[in-house]
Design a protein that fits this description.
six-stranded mixed sheet; two-stranded antiparallel sheet
């Protein structure tokens, strides 16, 4: 079975909730990201990727015809040796195409924000007198973003979760010896989604890819896939790995009127 958790096959929503569901029951509801991510990735019966994901991959020359894939929900990806639990991805996909192996790290979202900014995260670490927290933020931004160039967005305004997500995905790709990794935002526009929050997320994604690419890309809209990005790497990443960032969106709002 392509989707499993700790060796246990996941074939239904009930399986997913039991073996890889969120910690809080109120997060496993129709129209929110945890359940909709599960529903979307189960609909291909373990054979096909969600149609919007398959379409996205076909549009980029760096990805060929898919030969096989498997996935694990709630896969924590560690990017350093500091204390604390790494934030898990909603789904980590091991894929093989005609060009070889690669990873897809899926972050499912409805309208949830991409966490605090780098500035707020660093301030919280300093105020809380957490040296590991300060070191983690410093290492992350050095390894992923490097020095600011003219026209780049300010580091303090970048969403920390996006930086950490890319670092975790790159770290896991390095451990597996894969030369490519795709960090994929899988958005679900449901009746529970608020347009204002969707707009904020779109702005935050655009700001992040602009800083990551130093202006080569200025937005990340649904159906777009940017990369490869060659990040500085040090002090967290040893081997060079091609990083790609993509976004797909599924409109699930009910028709009214």
């Amino acid at each position: 079975m392509p989707i499993s958790k700790n060796g246990t096959p996941i074939a239904t929503l009930e399986d997913w909730e039991q073996f890889a569901g969120p910690m809080r029951d109120d997060q496993w509801v129709d129209g929110r990201s945890a359940k909709e991510t599960a529903r979307a990735w189960l609909e291909g019966n373990g054979v096909d990727l969600p149609k919007e994901v398959a379409t996205l991959l076909k549009r980029h020359d760096a990805f060929g015809r898919l030969l096989s894939w498997s996935a694990e929900p709630e896969g924590p990806l560690r990017f350093d040796d500091l204390a604390g639990e790494p934030r898990p991805f909603d789904l980590l996909v091991q894929a093989t195409d005609e060009q070889g192996d690669y990873l897809i790290a899926v972050d499912g979202t409805v309208d949830e924000p991409f966490g605090d900014t780098v500035g707020d995260t660093l301030a919280a670490a300093v105020d809380g007198e957490r040296p590991d927290g300060v070191a983690r933020v410093t290492q992350l931004v050095t390894a992923l973003l490097g020095a600011r160039q003219e026209g780049d967005p300010a580091l303090k305004d970048i969403r920390y979760q996006l930086v950490a997500a890319c670092a975790g995905a790159l770290g896991e790709a390095g451990r597996r010896g894969h030369p490519r990794v795709l960090v994929l935002v899988h958005e679900f526009v449901t009746d529970r989604a608020q347009d204002r929050k969707l707009l904020v997320n779109a702005i935050d994604l655009g700001r992040f890819v602009k800083r990551l690419s130093h202006g080569a890309a200025t937005s990340l809209d649904a159906g777009e896939l940017h990369g490869p990005f060659a990040v500085p790497g040090a002090p967290l990443l040893a081997a060079p790995i091609d990083l790609f960032i993509g976004k797909v969106s599924r409109n699930m709002r009910s028709r009214r009127g």
